[in-house]
Design brief:
The complex is a heterodimer of chains A (598) and B (605).
Chain A: E1 7-12, H1 15-18, H2 22-35, E2 42-47, E3 59-62, E4 66-68, H3 76-85, E5 95-96, E6 103-104, H4 111-114, H5 132-137, H6 142-150, H7 153-163, H8 175-184, E7 191-196, H9 205-212, H10 214-228, E8 232-237, H11 242-257, E9 273-278, H12 288-295, E10 319-323, H13 324-336, H14 338-342, E11 352-359, E12 365-370, H15 375-382, E13 392-397, E14 403-406, H16 416-421, E15 430-435, H17 440-454, H18 460-477, H19 483-499, H20 503-507, H21 510-529, E16 543-545, H22 555-559, E17 565-566, E18 574-575, H23 585-589, E19 595-597
Parallel strand pairs in A: 1-2, 7-8, 7-10, 8-9, 11-15
Antiparallel strand pairs in A: 1-3, 3-4, 5-6, 11-12, 13-14, 13-15, 16-19, 17-18
Chain B: E1 2-6, E2 9-13, H1 19-25, E3 49-54, E4 57-62, E5 73-75, H2 79-95, H3 100-108, H4 130-138, E6 145-147, E7 154-156, H5 171-175, E8 202-203, E9 215-216, H6 222-229, H7 240-244, E10 266-268, E11 273-274, E12 291-293, H8 294-301, E13 321-328, H9 343-357, E14 361-366, H10 376-385, E15 389-393, E16 396-401, E17 407-413, E18 418-424, E19 426-431, E20 433-434, H11 439-446, E21 473-475, H12 485-505, E22 515-517, H13 527-531, E23 537-540, E24 545-548, H14 558-562, E25 568-570, H15 575-586, H16 592-601
Parallel strand pairs in B: 1-5, 10-21, 12-19, 13-14, 13-19, 14-15
Antiparallel strand pairs in B: 1-2, 3-4, 3-5, 6-7, 8-9, 11-20, 16-17, 17-18, 22-25, 23-24
Helix pairs in contact in B: 2-3, 8-9, 9-10
The chains are: A alpha/beta (598), B alpha/beta (605).
Chain lengths: 598, 605
């Protein structure tokens, strides 16, 4: 018999918050509660990620929904005393409005949250992921029951088709059609696979979901397996997510113990089992055919996909591979219905999607919004805009396979097709926000460098082509570029796109092509003017001191690691450019704005 | 059966075929680098990219992997395709600028210079994976694989260390399109450790072979080596020859058959062997790779040999001076006392070959010149007159290996009456020939005896050169003694004729004076068997008696005398007959007439 306590303290123990000592906070809270003799009245619960990662460690306290952020173990006694015993808010630990500075103690009132529609993420932060009872208590696994006993496999597939759900891994293929193709493929042995090998830099949606709410993925997979006719499933998780692996393992075991997984699920006669397979540090294994090779125990290299995986996938058998977020959408669609799902989103992209906001943004973190919301709303209303008073320049979507969207497209509605039209793609949902101090040539370089490291190396266009494109970009960034290089980049891009074996290679030129499309003038500035307008490419910038503004305080000179700044006290200082390594410390510390960059 | 259009040409494809296979069957060229018909397709080089139009949509795909589905339209050399190939080849050329096949292909597509600065001019590997696949799929040794990722990708054994798993078959070397893999022998063969090109385990031994069909050398054949190494586990390694043979003529399961034949005649043509010059250490055979036997010189000078027929020292250079020494191991109390007969002629021939192929001086040390045959003496005169050849009449006594590797031949010049020496680059020992090492076994099997020189004994040295003491067993060629080709042909022809004559007869007339075993008295002691010089007695196991083969028995009487049981008698030469003759001889004459007869007749006949 579960005990009901008068208050719950929900402490986030996902990886992001743990990095800021959420463990310390959790343990301190438990101890303090015990010390005060309150452990029969107040429960301290570990939860998954709520998404407001820049503010971690976070916790909320129910009843009331009081949200505290950036909590440290030393703050715990005060929280217990003030909030739990006396019912008062500790204002210094609440979120503050960015403009007015006013405290916003209640979770739902925080702009970061109240503009979101947290469907897939509904349980993240609300349940202990290591306790299946909480998931069930909030309605989990009821969709499974409905699917197994109230629907036929064909009806399930029809419902998913009608919902218009498109693959949340980034490809956007209609999930219902994929299920149908797998079901119709000849063969008795079929598989379902969940892709948890999130590799895009800046992406942590899948991680948060797997850590915070593993059961929604499992439930989706069981329903899917039943609809498709598969009896074995795999969750491929990258090895760099140990907490996700751990929570998934616990979830699988607990589901098995309750008869929700394994043989004769809920006495329906349907058998289905799930295994976890860990990756080993290869971005390319997020590509479906490479993932399946890795799952089979072979080297993670893609195969030609003339036959779709739905016909010939794992061990050449029909396989339905979906991203973990796609699977997590399924219980919702089955419980609430396709009509509910289609009521959100745009014509071509239904439902909601999760995004990670990272980069130059006030509120970095994990969000979920309906498809069709504009970039402006995401970045400014939810994300809080660009910090330090800087200007928005571009947002990169889709990771290394995507492209950047400039500021004049801020009112673009976010959905699969619109993003592709603009030269980018949805990808798995990372959004890297850039301000005017970001150099777009450098951005292209960064992504190409990443892909160069992660290319499996099997096919020539990707392996050699990416390296060659990077060589050209490095030349441009160092000031040795020529206009002919831009044509060379274009020619290489076409071959890499059309000649490569897999999606990694085929989409590798996207960052280059999209930055060229929208920010060509920056490239030209690097080549013809030998300048980097954003002030990033070290070879093309130099720091100088404005003699009129310099007060001779000597701060920069003391901070300079190369001792490159000299000058008498109270007299204008100068920078010796031969010694300067362009670290920018002087620029950052000068209180009089006397250090400039050109 | 699928129908598709390639470059405007309508073609048909079987189930499971790829675009590349169908194109090649129909004579349509698509360039490839990482493709091989006997291996799984890999699709890494992307050079075979073609335009595939399906359901109205055009995409660029690799022909080697894409199935030849019904209704496809394919363009193998459209502008887009050529552009992609051009860039790919440019990338290859930047990676491996010195590889001929890449240079050629690149030139075909208009790329003459590497478009990007090459990092490693020595790089030859294009990471096509053919070596990995052949080692895994055919050889089944699994030695090679890729390691590292992306631009650091490389091919090699695990941890790039030498491994015993490698069977040195050379499959990877043959299949590598750029020559990036070499086989290097770790031990010297005849001549040093030169990189050898792989030779096939399926080969026609020589152009003169009869029948001239390929044979599989089980020792180097990957299939058999893997079967052996894995103790029967790996049963299907390679078999590439069988896969390719259109006549289906290859059967790996063939076993040696032991045939039992009943024959009437046997011709022994077991030939000779070369005597081992290591046995006379003063000639330094084995101490320098440049001291070789006459047979080894023959091999060297053969155009199918290791140097393509050129006369080269072990270091690979043309010699400046060559010495040829006669009678090494022959006419020698410390080796063989007999003369090996044909070495003088070939030594003269070798001297001539050296002059013909190099500018080297030749010093020929001989004792006597045995040039006995038709045209032989005339040849000898010709060689004597040939420029650059110095004939030294006197035994070549020793060969010393000098510190700089040169060889000092010391000998006697009998004409000058002096000891002489000469420093040369190569010494050819015209070494002795001898009976094969297993002559004993052959001999005892057939009842043949051997002469003092070790070769099989003929029935009579002058009058019966091809027959032996065993009726029906003949000798042909050098089995009877050293001889050159014309003599061998003559000798063998004689043996063949006599064998045929015997067969032709159908019946033979034999002397009635043969031994016969009284089987009731025979005690099965087998004493007679080993004594019979004509192997005419055999032991019948089932009846436990010895029995004389009357066709073979010459009536010598040895067994008659030896039989301890007295079970063997000589027909028409029985004890009673002999006793009767003796009594007749010593009977006193009864009448005058008998006395006269006895005097005239003499002692019994």
């Amino acid at each position: 018999m579960a005990e009901i306590r008068r208050a719950n303290v929900m402490v986030c123990r996902s990886t992001g918050c743990e990095a800021s000592d959420a463990v310390g906070v959790f343990d301190a809270m438990r101890e303090e509660i015990k010390r005060r003799g309150l452990d029969s009245e107040i429960d301290v619960v570990q939860t998954g990620c709520r998404g407001f990662c820049a503010m971690g460690p976070v916790m909320d306290i129910y009843p009331g929904g009081i949200f505290y952020c950036q909590v440290q173990p030393a703050d715990v006694p005060e929280i217990v005393e003030e909030t739990l015993i006396k019912g008062r808010v500790v204002e210094r630990l609440t979120y503050k409005d960015t403009e007015t500075g006013e405290p916003i103690p209640i979770y739902e009132d925080i702009p970061f949250y109240n503009k979101q529609v947290r469907n897939v993420l509904r349980f993240c932060g609300k349940v202990d992921p290591q306790n299946i009872d909480e998931y069930i208590a909030l309605g989990g696994y009821s969709a499974l029951g409905h699917a197994l006993f109230g629907m036929t496999p064909e009806e399930i597939i029809e419902e998913v088709k009608a919902s218009g759900l498109r693959g949340r891994g980034g490809g956007g293929f209609p999930t219902g059609r994929k299920w149908e193709a797998t079901r119709d493929a000849p063969g008795d042995v079929k598989y379902v696979v969940a892709n948890g090998d999130e590799g895009d830099p800046g992406a942590f949606m899948d991680r948060s979901l797997m850590e915070a709410d593993p059961h929604s993925i499992l439930e989706g997979m069981i329903i899917g397996a039943y609809a498709i006719g598969a009896h074995e499933g795999f969750i491929y998780v990258r090895d760099e997510y140990p907490l996700a692996v751990k929570n998934l393992r616990i979830a699988i075991q607990q589901a098995k113990d309750y008869g929700l997984l394994g043989e004769n699920i809920l006495d329906s006669g349907f058998d289905f089992d799930v295994k976890i397979v860990r990756g080993a540090g290869a971005f390319v294994c997020g590509e479906s055919s490479a993932l399946m090779q890795s799952l089979e125990g072979k080297v993670g290299e893609p195969r030609p996909k003339h036959f779709h995986a739905t016909e010939r996938g794992l061990w050449d058998r029909p396989t339905c591979l979906n991203n973990v977020k796609s699977w997590a959408n399924i219980p919702l669609i089955i419980s609430a219905g396709a009509d509910w799902f289609t009521s959100m989103g745009t014509e071509g992209s239904k439902g909601t999607n999760t995004f990670c906001l990272v980069g130059k943004i006030q509120n970095p973190g994990l969000i979920e919004v309906p498809m069709g919301i504009t970039l402006r709303e995401i970045i400014y209303d939810i994300g809080g805009g660009i910090p330090d008073g800087r200007e928005f320049k571009a947002v990169q979507t889709g990771g290394p396979s995507g492209g950047c969207i400039p500021s004049d497209l801020l009112d673009l509605q976010v959905d699969f097709d619109r993003l592709t039209e603009a030269g980018s793609m949805m990808g798995s949902g990372a959004m890297v926000i850039m301000d005017d101090r970001t150099c777009m040539v450098d951005v292209a370089r960064y992504f190409l460098d990443f892909l160069k490291e992660e290319s499996c190396g099997k096919c020539t266009p990707c392996r050699e082509g990416i390296k060659s494109m990077l060589t050209i970009l490095n030349r441009i960034a160092e000031g040795h570029g020529e206009m002919a290089d831009l044509d060379a980049l274009g020619a290489l891009a076409i071959t890499v796109q059309s000649g490569s074996l897999c999606g990694l290679g085929k989409t590798a030129p996207n960052p280059v092509l999209s930055t060229l499309r929208y920010f060509r003038d920056e490239y030209v500035a690097h080549i013809e003017d030998h300048t980097c307008p954003a002030g990033v490419c070290k070879a093309l910038i130099e720091y100088y001191i404005d003699a009129e503004l310099c007060t001779g305080c000597g701060l920069c000179s003391r901070k300079c690691p190369q001792e490159a700044i000299s000058g008498e006290k109270k007299e204008a200082h100068t920078i010796d450019l031969d010694l300067c390594i362009k670290c920018g410390v002087c620029f950052d510390v000068c209180r009089f704005d006397a250090v400039g960059m050109r | 059966m699928a129908t598709l259009i390639i470059d405007g040409q309508t073609v048909h494809a079987e189930e499971g075929q790829t675009i590349l296979e169908v194109a090649r069957e129909n004579g349509i060229e698509i360039p490839t680098l990482c493709y091989h018909p006997l291996l799984e397709t890999y699709g890494a080089c992307r050079l075979c990219t073609v335009e595939v139009i399906r359901h109205g949509r055009s995409k660029l795909e690799t022909a080697c992997t894409h199935p030849a589905w019904d209704g496809l339209e394919i363009k193998t050399h459209s502008t887009d395709v050529n552009e992609v190939r051009k860039v790919i080849l440019g990338l290859f050329l930047s990676r491996c600028p010195e590889v001929p096949i890449i240079q050629d292909l690149a030139r075909q597509y208009g790329v003459t210079e590497p478009p990007f600065p090459p990092e490693d001019l020595e790089q030859k590997c294009i990471l096509c994976g053919l070596c990995v696949r052949v080692c895994h799929e055919l050889v089944k040794a699994d030695v090679l694989n890729f390691s590292q990722r992306g631009i650091d990708r490389q091919v090699g054994p695990p941890f790039l260390e030498k491994t015993r798993q490698c069977i040195g078959c050379g499959a990877c070397t043959i299949i590598c399109p750029t020559g990036a893999i070499e086989i290097v022998l770790e031990e010297a063969a005849i001549y040093g450790a030169k990189p050898l090109g792989p030779t096939s385990a399926v080969w026609v031994p020589s152009m003169q072979a009869v029948p001239r069909v390929p044979v599989i050398d089980k020792d180097s054949c990957i299939h058999f080596r893997q079967l052996d190494r894995s103790e029967g586990e790996i049963v299907d390694a390679c078999q590439a020859c069988q896969m390719l043979c259109e006549a289906d003529a290859i059967n790996f399961d063939q076993q040696d058959e032991i045939l039992e034949l009943d024959v009437g005649t046997v011709i022994v043509a077991t030939g000779f062997e070369m005597w081992d010059p290591h046995k006379l250490s003063q000639y330094s055979y084995g101490k320098s790779p440049n001291v070789i036997t006459g047979l080894e010189f023959e091999r060297l000078s053969n155009s199918a040999g290791i140097s393509g027929g050129e006369i080269l020292t072990a270091e690979g250079d043309k010699p400046e001076r060559v010495a040829i020494i006669h009678c090494v191991g022959s006419r020698d109390h410390n080796a063989h006392e007999y003369c090996s007969r044909f070495c003088c002629m070939y030594s003269l021939k070798h001297a001539h070959l050296v002059r013909d192929k190099t500018d080297a001086e030749v010093y020929e040390f001989y004792m006597d010149m045995r040039t006995f045959g038709s045209g032989y003496e005339e040849f000898y005169e010709r060689i004597q007159k040939e420029e650059g050849i110095t004939m030294v009449r006197g035994r070549g006594a020793s060969v010393e290996v000098l510190r700089d590797g040169k060889l000092r031949v010391k000998g006697e010049d009998a004409d000058l009456g002096e000891l002489v020496h000469v420093d040369v680059d190569m010494v050819v020992l015209s070494s002795a020939v001898e009976a094969p090492h297993d002559a004993d076994q052959v001999g005892s099997m057939l009842g043949l005896s051997r002469k003092q020189d070790g070769f099989f004994a003929e029935a009579h040295p002058k009058l019966r050169p091809v027959e032996t003491n065993t009726e029906g067993v003949f000798l042909a060629g050098a089995a009877q003694g050293p001889k050159d080709v014309p003599d061998t042909v003559g000798h063998a022809g004689a043996a063949a004729s006599m064998a045929l004559a015997l067969l032709d007869k159908g019946e033979v007339t034999i002397s009635p004076q043969v031994a016969v075993v009284d089987e009731k008295l025979c005690s099965a002691c087998k004493t007679c068997l080993s004594l019979c010089p004509y192997t005419a007695i055999s032991f019948i196991d089932e009846e436990n008696v010895a029995r004389v083969n009357e066709a073979l028995c010459k009536g010598c009487g040895t067994c008659v005398a030896a039989c301890p049981a007295g079970a063997i008698t000589a027909r028409h030469f029985t004890t009673e007959q002999i006793m009767a003759q003796i009594e007749g001889l010593f009977r006193l004459p009864e009448t005058e007439e008998e006395l006269v007869e006895a005097e005239v007749e003499g002692v019994g006949s």
